[in-house]
Write a structure and sequence with these properties.
By secondary structure, the chain is of the alpha/beta class. It has two domains: 44-138 and 264-325, Bordetella uptake gene, domain 1 (D-Maltodextrin-Binding Protein, domain 2), CATH 3.40.190; 140-254, 3-Layer(aba) Sandwich (D-Maltodextrin-Binding Protein, domain 2). Helices cover 43% and strands 18% of the residues. The protein has helices at 11-34, 55-71, 86-94, 109-117, 125-128, 153-162, 178-189, 202-210, 275-290, 292-301, 310-332, and strands spanning 44-48, 75-79, 101-106, 129-138, 140-145, 168-172, 194-198, 216-220, 231-236, 263-270. The strands form two sheets. A five-stranded mixed sheet has the order 2-1-3-10-4, sandwiched between helices. The protein has a five-stranded mixed sheet with strand order 7-6-8-5-9. Strand 1, helix 2 (55-71) and strand 2 (75-79) form a beta-alpha-beta unit. The longest helix is centred in the N-terminal third of the chain and has 24 residues, at 11-34. It is elongated, with a radius of gyration of 27 Å.
Length: 335
């Protein structure tokens, strides 16, 4: 039997042995961080603040169709409609800030909702969340049933002014939504009145128009796709015609006050996301929204899929805020 004789080991050998042990322990401690898997390692949840089938949902699903090619993991779309996107925003804000729970919402919707709610708002978008990038722009259209007697936006305005006793009814995706505010501003600027009927999402508001439950609606122009035999758009609220529905005139082309609003479709994350996660997400969003396959798919869906950097996205939000905030203060925060 072999016996280990420590007396036969010199001080030099002991120091070398100790150094080897320290080096081994250092490697063992450092190895986990070096071998840590790069984000993401599991599917990512993208929460949409409106119901399935609406314009916001359409953009989210188009994005998720290609996101896995750049992120390496699937992006799962989950709809949490209600409170103009605030329910979805709160879910993301309350989730762990690790990049596995993201929000998809328009730039105007719940931002406007937070302005309306003031101190009661559960989430303040530009403070509690981070803009990761835009993947398109939604243009709002004034839509009527196909056989409506109104052939233009001006026809509708003229009729409402001449017949104030015959109250018109109009639909929108929910109170506090961009479409709701644009509709209210349209009525105010043209000095007409109509009864608003809120729905949970643009697709439901569109269905109300096609079923002739209301006289007109303010919805995303892309929701016209597949409903051309039941609906007709009288005008768009943006300063320029929509890139897909180029035949629909703007309001100012018809001699009416122009809103000049287009709503960026934005992917948001928690404000405390790690820097490496933010970098990966921003790059992936840009790659998807700039790809030919994404643009081709969105065009078929009747939506305009274009990439907007976080900086340009925030600029778009600023335009909406500048236009809508004074109106909101006057309409909702009267003293």
């Amino acid at each position: 039997m072999y016996y280990f004789n420590i007396r036969s080991i010199s001080i030099k050998h002991l120091l070398a042995f100790a150094a080897l042990i320290i080096l081994t322990l250092a490697v063992m401690v450092s190895t986990p961080s070096k071998l840590k898997a790069e984000y993401p390692t599991r599917p990512i949840t993208l929460i949409v603040g409106f119901s399935a089938g609406g314009s916001t949902d359409m953009y989210a699903r188009a994005f998720s169709s290609f996101a896995h090619e750049y992120l390496g993991m699937p992006v799962v779309v989950i709809n949490k409609p209600g409170a103009t996107g605030m329910i979805a925003a709160k879910a993301v804000y309350n989730a762990r800030p690790d990049g596995y729970t993201l929000l998809f919402n328009s730039g105007g919707g719940f931002l406007i909702k937070s302005t309306i709610d003031g101190d009661r708002a559960p989430v303040v978008p530009m403070q509690d969340l981070k803009v990761l990038g835009g993947i398109g722009q939604a243009v709002t259209a004034l839509v009527v049933p196909k056989d409506s007697p109104f052939k233009s936006a001006k026809d509708l305005v003229d009729y409402a002014k001449k017949n104030p006793d015959k109250r018109l009814r109009w639909a929108h995706p929910g109170r506090g939504s961009t479409k709701n505010l644009e509709g209210m501003l349209f009525l105010k600027q043209n000095n007409i009145k109509a009864q608003d009927i809120p729905f949970k999402g643009g697709s439901k508001a569109r269905n109300a128009v096609s079923a002739k439950q209301v006289h007109f609606s303010f919805i995303g122009v892309q929701l016209m796709a597949g409903f051309e035999t039941k609906l007709r758009a009288l005008g768009v609220m943006s300063s320029e015609r929509d890139l897909i529905y180029k035949n629909i005139p703007t309001l100012d082309e018809q001699g009416l006050p122009a809103l000049g609003v287009s709503n960026p479709m934005i992917i948001w994350g928690h404000k405390d996301l790690p820097k490496d996660v933010v970098t990966k997400l921003k790059a992936s969003i840009k790659s998807v929204a700039s790809s030919k396959v994404y643009n081709k798919m969105t065009k078929k869906m009747g939506i305009s899929g274009t990439y907007l950097s976080p900086l340009k996205t925030k600029a778009k939000i600023g335009i909406i805020d500048k236009l809508m905030t004074p109106f909101i203060e006057k309409m909702f925060h009267k003293k």
